[in-house]
Every structure is written in structure tokens, then in C-alpha cells.
Amino acid sequence: MCRGRGAALAGVLLVGSVTTEALGVEAQVHATTDAQFYTLRSPYGDPELRRRRYTQTLALTVHDIVSDGGVAFAPALSFKLRMRMDADFGQESVERDPRSARRYIPGLEQAPLDVMYAYLEGRHLLGGLVGFRAGRQYTTDALGWWSFDGGLLRVDTPAFVAVEAYGGFEQRGGLPAALGTSRFTPDGVYRGDRRDMELGLYPHYLEESRLAPAYGFAIESSGVHFVHGRLSYRKVINRDTVIVSPFRRADGSFLTVGGDRVSSERIGYSVRASEESLGSVRGSVVYDFYNQVFSEHAAALDWYTTDELTLGGEYDYYYPTFDADSIFNWFSHSGMTTALGRVELRPARSWDVAVAGGAKFFSTEGDSGTYLAEAQDPSREPDRSKKGTLGDAVGRASGRYRWGDGNVELRTSGETGRRGHRVGGDVTTRQTFDGRYEGMVVLSLYDWADDIRPLRDATSFGYVLGGGFLPADKARFGVEWEHSMNRLVGQRYRVLATLDLTVGP
User: Fold this and answer.
1) Whole-number Å distance between alpha carbons of 100 and 47
2) Is 292 found in the same domain as 185?
3) Considering the domain boundaries, does residue 330 fall inside one?
4) Are residues 65 and 154 in the same domain?
5) Mean pLDDT for the stretch of residues 309-325
6) pLDDT in tens, 189-243
7) How many domains in the chain?
8) Cα distance between residue 499 and residue 32, in whole Å
9) Which of 53, 288, 333, 499 meets the CB 3.0–4.6 Å disulfide criterion with 295?
């Protein structure tokens, strides 16, 4: 059945890509096939997962549906589509059987098919002022990556300001007819199709049977090359009736909540100013209306000291927020602040190095200095009236050297503090032979320790051996073997095979 579905999908895209020269339409079809075989054993010994994943994507891009002979800024119409099937034939039937209490995974499918994006786009309409998108699409700004089904209208005004307005439904998993995924929904919830599940079975797996309306707007600078700013607002509505307590009431029923209510509502602003001979400044801030907090704010500075040397610094604050239906909203959680200084050196085209270092701070509930003693003595109750701060030293370094047909790259990172450490790095070497053959070797070594859970300390070593073959332009076949090991999980193996094909200009 999966093979038939994939063949039908390929046929649709290939038929859609056939064009005639008289129309002047350009079409491109791109296909990728990834096969992964790996085995994972739980640190506790059971269960052991054996996965056999086949991921197939097919994309169609049609340009110049409406165009004006290549004239710059002339009205243009195009269509873009990408679909994905992510099949796993290594699953066991008990993982999809609700009667299996130990192994059942709600929402798990053997061969889910989703539309990553599919939209019609118009540009430079009505004198070059108006553009639009209709269909499934992505947006990315200070509020993060997000996907929705609907329409977006953009107006570029003569005053160097562009205005966008959009509305539709948030892309979510659990709606079979929508061919969607929950990848871009807010954190903290586990949703899907509960039609074949009893009410009291896995109550934390929330019902997803109704569309989630969403709308928003953005105002950004346009046509000014040295500065760009964007203000974004977005609101999403939950409409399903969901269980709000995992425990039955005295009459055997569950407490539920329904009706239209906020899923997420946020506003954010980002700005970047740059000057080629001097440097750049970046900043962003996000406010969460549901939690009534500034959940994110960041700033960064780069100074182009010379053509070879760049000095910089960055500051970032992140406070975790969740979908309004998530139980995590009831638990205490705190923000994390990171401050780093950076140096980037590019003395020649053949090599470059970069070093960054600084500190990371965590707000804590209770006195963090007593965490270890409380973990070792369960009878000790933490004093939650106190607030504390934990600080870690963090750093990273990288370097790369290039020659004619290859390169070698080193990446290292580390974080250490009062609670433990995590340090390590990896070396990657790539080489091309005769323009058609590729080779890759990766070596990695990491060590970590947790003072509160000393039994979880370990040193992990891994390596990857890979190769590729380019039989023709816009075609590549590759294979990778990965092996990692540490005392917690033993030996882990993975084989990855990839095939990329592109037809069209």
C-alpha cells in the first residue's frame, strides 16, 4: 500500500510538471529518498527499538505561470509543492495497539504522508505593490518557524514599509484529511486522533479533531538595504474538547474543557542594522500574552575589525512557554540567560577559526546549593520560598581547512559548572574524487557528568564512514555507516542511504 501511495504521488507530480513551450512555463521536479536502519536500546535494557525508516519527498516548482517576458518587477505567478512520506517498517504491531499498555505509542503511524507546503504565489501585482500566497505555507520571524493553511496578503507601500496580513488554520497532526504534522505547533501538548481510543486511555493524549483558527499580521521595513525591522503578531485558537485531569471523578467521568480558547498569542519584533565596512547589530524581543511575560529577548554585535578579523558578542534570554492546553503551564519553570563573546579569524581563503566563550545562568526554585544533599537524602524537603541562580561556564571553538577537492573541520563545545559538565568535539573530513565520488569520515568524543545522578556519567565515542556517487548533474547517491558507544546504552548502529534527483532547470 505504501509503495502504491508513493507511485501515485510521483505520477501526480510528474504529470503536473509537463509543460509546453508555447506557454513559457518552467517546471522543476525534485525527489529525495532516505533509508535509515538503526537499533536503539534503552539505558534500562528494555525495550530495544529496531527501526527501518524510508523517507520519500517529492517537490514540484512551476515558475512563470504568468510573466512578462523576464521584465524586472513584472507581475509573476508561481506554484510550489512538497510532499513527504516517512514510513517505518521496523515498528512492531504492539506499538500501535492500544491494548498493549507497555509498548503502545498514541499517534504512531507506520507510513504517514504529509504535505510540507503547497501554495500559489503572486508577486508584483497592481503596479508592483501587492503580493499573495494561498495554500499551506511557512512563515519565519521573531516568533519562530510556523506553518498554516490559508492566505497571506502583502502590500509594499512607497513609504519603505510593507504590511502583511494572514489567516487560516494552524497545521497540526491528527487530522487525516489535512495531511499535516504537529512539528510546528507549540510545545507542551501531545495531540492526535482519538477516534479508536477509550476516554480514559492515555488522557494526556489530547483530542485533535477540529481545525485551529489562526490569524496575524506583520509590519516590516522594505527597500532599505542597511536596516531591516519586522513586527509580528499571531494568535491561534483551540476548539477541541479535552480532558484536563488524568483522574476520574466520583461518578467515573473525567473533567473536560471545551469551547473556543487561546492556544497561543504572541507578538515579537526583530531588527538588524549593518554597514559593510563597520559591522552589524541585531536584536529581538517576544512577548507572550497568555503567560504575560517577555519570553525571549536577544541582542548581538559584530565588529568587522579587519577583512580577516571579526569581534562580536551576543546575549540571549529564553523563558519556556507552552500551548495553553498544556499541563506544564501549572508547573514552575524559569528562564535561561546566555552571554558570549566571539572571535572569528579568516587569514586566508583556505582556512578559518572561531572561538566563543561566556556564561549561562539558570534561575532556580529553592537554594541550588542544597540540591545534591536533597537528592541524596529524600527526607529533606527543599525550601521553595527561596530563589537561586546557577551559573555555568560555556565555550565553543571551531576551525576549518580547505584544499582543492576537500576540507577538514573541527568543532568543540563545553559547559561546566557546580552540577557537572558536558564537553567534547568532533572532526569531519570530506574529499571529492574525479568530480563524481565523495568520501567522508567523522570522529566524535564527548564526556558528561551529573553530580545529582552520578550513575548517568559516561564517555561516548562515535564515528561515521560515508561515501557518495554523482552519476549525472542534479543526481546523487550516498551511503553512511554510523557507530556510537558508551557504557549507558552499549553499542548503537545506523545505516543511512540517500538518493537525490532533480528534473528541470
Assistant:
1) 13
2) yes
3) no
4) no
5) 96
6) 988 888 878 877 888 888 888 999 999 999 999 888 899 999 999 999 999 988 8
7) 2
8) 5
9) 288
